[in-house]
Amino acid sequence: MADLEQPQVIPAEAKTEVNWQALAQLQLKLAAVLDFEALLQELLREAIANTGAKSAAVLFLETLSAGSPPILRPFAITGYTTSSIQPLRETVGFGVNDADDPALAAWKNRKLYIADEATPALKPLIEALQWKKWAGASAYVGDQLTAAVLVELDTPLSPTQQDWLSTFSAGAGIALRNSRLHSQAVSGLNARMNELAILQRIDLELSEQIEPDHVYEMTLDWAMRYTGSQAGTIATFDEATNALRFVSELGYEGAVETRAMMRNASRGGIARRVANSGRSDNIPDVASDPDYMPVAAQIRSHLSVPVNKEDRVIAVISVESRKLNHYTDDHMTFLERLAARAGNAMDNARLFAETTSEREKLSRIVSNIGDVVIVFDENNNVLLMNQSAIPVLRLYADGKYEGKPAEEVLSDTTLLDVYNKSRPYHQPIIEEVVMPNGRAYNAQLSWHANIGRILVLQDITSLKETDQLKNELISTVSHDLKQPLTVMNGYLELLQMTQPLEGRPLEYVRSAQRSIGNMRGLIDDLLNLAKIESGIQLNVKALEVKPLLQRCVDDIRGAADAKMITLNFSVTPDDLCLSGDLTSINQVFSNLIGNAVKYTPPEGKVSIKAEKSGEAVLVTINDTGLGISPEDQARIFDRFYRVRRPETENIEGTGLGLAIVKRLVEIHRGQIGVESRLGEGSKFFVRLPLGTMESSSLEAEAAP
Ligand code: ADP
Fold it and tell me: How far is the CA of 489 from the centre of ligand 1 (A)?
């Protein structure tokens, strides 16, 4: 391998002809230099050494942008470094198609050009170098003038030196072009490797970030650093509402508020355009873009890329430079790659932030509601408990109860029984409990898949007190009303006895008596309900079902016969017993059978069936009557609710019967329900505890 440090000097005066062999060897050697900068320096040294020149320059043809004419520019000059030549390179270049320029004309003919002064095209260069006498030879690659070697002369060139320079220069073209391509490929590769390494780091760091602001800041910082930008922003975008929100910005001066105002005024500028189009936009000169918003001074070029998540644009990364035409395709590609990585991280961070804020909101709401809320997981451990639970359950205010078992937090309260009772089932339970603080609560326990059980306690103490007052009021008023009714009825009877009435007068008196009867019925129902609500004393014992139903049926038979309604009943087994309070149970069945007859048109059928069903007695009362619509079925057990239909218009009632029945069945820890179709009839069923000889336990529980 030849030594590049030692120029091979061929003294001009020693020879009259070029040592062609030595020159060929030199050119072979130079062709092997792959580093462009090193080759340029070699060319300078060889040119000076072999021509006796004071200094030399190597020009190389460059195409600055696609479509623009190529320019010959100095790439190496004796005494200049790679960086000090830069400003000169940018100012003294010239096009190679100027046919009037004598130097270029000579070079076109592949001749050496020797001059005492600058030619028009080379004037800026020669003047900048302050060369007086000089010579230049060109280099061609195919038909294209690609390079030129210039030397500054002190003494004229000998013909041998001229020949040497022409041939040397001609051979330099291919070597220069090849090493230039090689260097570009290597630096491109390096840049690509560098970019890959950066992107890998970005991946790593973004994957560890969950805080949205950090993700935005990191992304923007990388975007600006890689593209050499002076300012930049990230704006999030919501496609559904078309809302663009600037979430991160770097490099802008002045108050944030002012900038926000400017951005609002321009409604997002180029960033919004990119968000809407979903395509990156490189603006070489912002002055020519009507959407550009001048937020920072001296900005000349702008680059915006969309950040996508699946098919949606979720953000826009924008960078800005003070240089005109600053952004290259490489910058855009890098930002797009960065955006692809940031998209996932931004979306994850956004989801995380949303979830966290939702959770915080929920927990704040739960902690601040007055009702007690406790959530138990599927293993019956506390998952969440609000502040209101602390005093009600007599827990320590600073205690940590999350993860504690239900047995521990509910211990010593009736709630634990309710909780344990609910455990085998998934149906919601609602019960009234009195807590150690002496207050009454409505406890609701509901089961939720994937969560567990939610317990809610509502303080109903004041409701109960009001209810109690209301019941007292009703019973007092009812009693007071009953008295005059009895008197009125007595006088009406007396009137009939003392003065035999017939015709219209008799009708009037009967009608008055009927109304008194109805009013009595209503008062009785009200008193009954009030009594039940305030807690009646149940005398619970085993009751034989058959004679009980027989009595109810017998009582109703008259009314049924009057409407020619078939009334029958069956009890299996014959000696079936239920456990309950005789008066109350009588009231339940009388009411249900009475309703069946009342709401069944003449010639219909009412059948009653009692049977054993597990540990309960199931009594069904079936009729072929008017039937009840689904909407009414949901309300007939409410107090005072009466179905308003043309068919029921003339049927008298108070709307309290079923409310009383339901309450009585519940007090007996039974269940009541209805199945019905309008116009086809109804089926009421009542489930009551099976009676045994020692069924007195209920008595103790049901007693207030
Ligand atoms: P009422 O005093 O009006 O009978 P209830 O509480 O006993 O009050 O019944 C409420 C409403 O339910 C009644 O107004 C009636 O419309 C409807 N209802 C009750 N039992 C039946 C039945 N067997 N068939 C059709 N409708 C019924």
Answer: 27
Q: pLDDT tens across 159-187, in order?
A: 999 999 999 998 888 888 888 888 887 77
**Which of these three, 459, 474, 497, is where a domain ends?**
459
Give the model confidence (pLDDT) of 602-626 as tens digits. Answer: 999 999 999 999 889 999 999 999 9
150 with 57: CB under 8 angstroms? Answer: yes
Query: What ligand 1 atom has the least distance to the C-alpha of 621?
Result: 23
3-class SS letters over 580-643: EEHHHHHHHHHHHHHHHHHCCCCCCEEEEEEEEECCEEEEEEEECCCCCCHHHHCCCCCCCCCC
In the 8-state DSSP scheme, what is residue 288?
Answer: G
Distance 620 CA to ligand 1 centre (A): 16
> What is the pLDDT at residue 699?
40
| 356: helix, strand or coil | helix
Name the residue type at position 134: W
CATH of the domain at 564: 3.30.565.10
Looking at residue 690, what DSSP letter applies?
A: B
CA 442–ligand 1 middle distance (angstroms): 29
Cα of 642 from ligand 1 centre, angstroms: 6
Look at residues 412, 437, 459 and tell me which one is the last residue of a structural domain.
459
Together in a domain, 375 and 469: no
pLDDT at 696 over 80: no
* Least confident among 113-127, 192-206, 662-676: 192-206
- Strand arrangement of the beta sheet that strand 429-434 belongs to: 382-385, 372-376, 452-459, 440-448, 429-434
Q: What separation in Å is there between the alpha carbon of 654 and the centre of ligand 1?
A: 9
Residue 363 located in a structural domain: no
Note down the domain range covering 286.
209-356
Q: Tell whether the model's pLDDT for residue 9 goes beyond 60.
A: no
pLDDT in tens, 247-277: 888 888 877 777 777 777 667 789 999 999 9
Shared domain check, 300 and 154: no
User: Using CA positions, which residue lies closest to atom 8 of ligand 1?
Assistant: 655
Helix (H) or strand (E) holding 309: strand 301-309
Q: Whose CA is nearest to atom 7 of ligand 1?
A: 657
Distance from residue 188's CA to the centre of ligand 1 (Å): 90
Ligand 1 pocket mutation pick from 658, 664, 672 by most atoms within 8 angstroms of CB: 658
**What domain count does the chain have?**
5
Tell me, what amino acid is at 434?
Answer: V
For residue 659, the ligand 1 atom closest to its alpha carbon is 6
Q: For residue 427, is pLDDT > 90?
A: no
CA 643 to centroid of ligand 1, rounded, Å: 7
Q: Kindly state whether residues 220 and 246 are assigned to the same domain.
A: yes
* Percent of the chain topping pLDDT 70: 95
H/E segment holding residue 120:
none
Mean pLDDT on 425-453: 86
Nearest CA to ligand 1 atom 4: 653
Give me the pLDDT at residue 369, please.
85
The pick from 532, 599, 672 for probing ligand 1's pocket by mutation, whose C-beta has the most ligand atoms within 8 angstroms, reads 599
Q: Which of 514, 517, 530, 584 is nearest to 552 (CA)?
A: 584
List ligand 1's pocket residues with C-beta within 6 A.
595-596, 599, 623, 625-626, 628, 636, 641-643, 648, 653-659, 682
